Amino acid sequence: MNKAFLDYLKLSVEDKNKSDKESIDIPALVQFADDFLRQIVDSFNRTYYVPQNGQLSLQWSTESRCAAWINAAKDSSAPFHTIYITYELLIQLAADGYAFTRYAIQWLNRPFHDVFWESKGIEKNGIGIFPLGIDPLQNKRFLMMNSLHWIVSHEIAHSLQSHAAVRSGVPHQAWMGPSHVSESPEGKEPCSDVEAEIFQCTELAADFEALRVLFITLVTSKRAHCKENSIQEDSLTKNDIWTLFLSIALVFLRFHHFDGKRFDGIVKGHHPHPSIRYLLLSQSLIGLIVKTDLKELAGLNFSEEEMFEVMTGTFWVALIFWAERYETDYEVISFGEVVTDPETIEVKRYLSKIVSRWDELRPIIRNIYKNDFLLMEFNIFARRVSGIPLPQDEQDGHHEI
Ligand SMILES: [Zn+2]
Description:
Blueprint: H1 3-9, H2 13-22, H3 26-49, E1 55-61, E2 68-72, E3 80-86, H4 87-105, H5 111-119, H6 136-160, H7 163-167, E4 180-183, H8 193-227, H9 238-257, H10 274-291, H11 294-297, H12 304-326, H13 329-340, H14 345-368, H15 380-386, H16 392-395
Helix pairs in contact: 3-4, 3-6, 4-6, 4-12, 6-8, 6-9, 8-10, 8-14, 9-10, 9-12, 10-12, 10-13, 12-13, 14-15
């Protein structure tokens, strides 16, 4: 370990965060993120908004909290949506990626950890704990790009699926309905029962769509780069998927860090517990890669076992990093329990409420948003654990995901 990193390890958690943030060239980061996100916004404008005479815009916010949200113009017959992201969220995501890279190269590479990695089937054959072929610095940039892309796509999914209107019980009003959907760990009265179930179902539906949008974009941009001869491989590699799983794990560990509460299986509040969000999303990503028609189209050839191995490997690396960096053993253990042992009474209790509520909501949203590929469908894992089978009228022609 180099001297600078040893000195850094002696700092308090807060001072480490300060140091991580000070290591970032913030004007360059903001410029990069702004250019990157405007390309995504332009793409959504071309695909969805312009054909409907609407517009999607992006606005940075100076609020001092980690947050993203989306607003719709009221009383408009076309969709006019604005996504807001705080600079604080961008800087925190970059700081987490920066810290992860340092720990993954140095701290997680110690002989002390080797027994643990071996017990989890993780091979140390690249730089630090990175798999062979991953460039840590390039990976750091990809982590942030994936996180930002996923967060923005999640916000857009809320609007495209008219979640604000669905939550207010007026889904037929679509674009003209209530307009504000926010991701924030604070600032709202807690809710429970049916209201919480509707909020949490729509959060999971936005998670699901965002993951699929991100994945498709990664597949198509890899092909485009290949055509331009900048890279040789035209489909996603196992290393690309390693980085993707890791990006998602770090985002949800960040969300969990806001309050660190244990998952108890009760549906309350506006957002699902981060550990259940990660669990459902990671299961969904494995299904997407190995079981859908996309597998053939994108030239992906991975078995379920291989993808499960990549998912669990990145999860352990992210979890151990978080425990070391933020000194929060309890927080990561409670997060890890849900993911590594998902067939518990708490998960079953939670999914039985959520799956049946979504079975009611999905046809309503499907009337407004006719995109079966992007509209959430609970997979075989969630159906089994919840004990709720697929509705009879959807069983014919159903593609498991
Ligand atoms: Zn949301």
